[in-house]
Design a protein that fits this description.
about 70% helix; mainly alpha; about 290 residues; globular; 15 helices
């Protein structure tokens, strides 16, 4: 791999520092271009859900691997699809726009991750694989087209809503998840969409991206994100049979408080980070409720 050498001189003498050449530099931005935080969070959520649902170690690893590949493909696809808009708005925090990743490398990485995702998903079973691949297809559809439409929320709701089905359909007998779990996941996904878009609404409007959050504006989108995520927590708490636990009531109260505080700063990243924190608390509840 070629490298560039830069001479450094000073009181301590002279020397040289090897810097990566263009081919290696093109790969350095790949990890950041895959949207690592959501990718890791969704993968961990899947692994925990698989454990709670009763999968063994191999089943957990397979489900997590398939979801990780799907998330990587979606993240890289998103950054490649947004390159023109990111350049137009000066998004130096995006690896492609900043020049720390090559468009060709990101496109190839997205394609390879997608190709890996297909057999890993189908290895969990035909129905399970179809559910996961439908969710991945919805996410790609968002990146390439639906992001700028009034139904921009739908791919998030569909992809998240199908995730529990991917996990449970891979169990013996291929059972479908309970409706309350599907509803909770779909509501969380839709809420995450509105919260995730908030910091970029002005840039999106300047470059012609007019999804539902952009049409509603930051304040109404922040409020809707909060209601959707609160609805997700309510479905998890009230959906399972039996009495609501003390943790369930505490989760609802903490979720409502956190979302209310986050909605006071709709233009920043706090709403999305709050959604991620709520999702983590939801996972704890799911482990207790779904454990065989």
């Amino acid at each position: 791999m070629p490298v560039r050498t830069t001479q450094i001189t000073g009181s301590g003498g002279s020397g040289s520092v090897a810097r990566p050449g263009p081919a290696l530099s093109a790969l350095w931005g790949l990890p950041a271009a895959c949207h690592p935080l959501p990718a890791v969070a969704v993968t961990l959520f899947t692994a925990v859900l698989a454990v709670a649902a009763g999968h063994g170690p191999s089943g957990v690893a397979l489900a997590a691997g398939a979801v990780a590949a799907g998330q990587l493909s979606v993240g890289w696809c998103n950054d490649r699809a947004d390159l023109r808009r990111d350049l137009a708005t000066g998004r130096r925090d995006k690896p492609l726009a900043a020049g720390t990743a090559s468009p060709a490398a990101v496109a190839w990485a997205a394609a390879v991750a997608l190709l890996v995702c297909v057999p890993l998903s189908l290895a969990a079973g035909t129905l399970a694989g179809a559910a996961h691949l439908a969710g991945v297809a919805a996410a790609w559809g968002y990146n390439l087209w639906l992001k700028g439409t009034a139904v921009s929320w739908a791919p998030y709701a569909l992809a998240f809503g199908l995730l529990p089905a991917f996990v449970t359909l891979g169990l013996p007998g291929a059972p479908w998840p309970p409706p309350w779990l599907t509803a909770a996941a779909a509501l969380l996904g839709a809420g995450a969409h509105f919260a995730n878009v908030l910091p970029d609404i002005d840039d999106d409007l300047a470059t012609g991206v007019v999804g539902l959050p952009q049409r509603l504006g930051a304040r109404r989108s922040a409020a809707l994100a909060g209601l959707l995520v609160l609805g997700s927590a309510a479905a998890l708490v009230a959906g399972p049979p039996g009495r609501v636990t003390a943790y369930g009531w505490a989760l609802l109260a903490a979720t409502a408080t956190a979302l209310l505080l986050a909605s006071r700063s709709p233009a920043g990243k706090l709403p999305f980070r709050t959604v991620m924190a709520v999702a983590g608390a939801d996972v704890v509840l799911l482990v207790a409720e779904l454990r065989p």
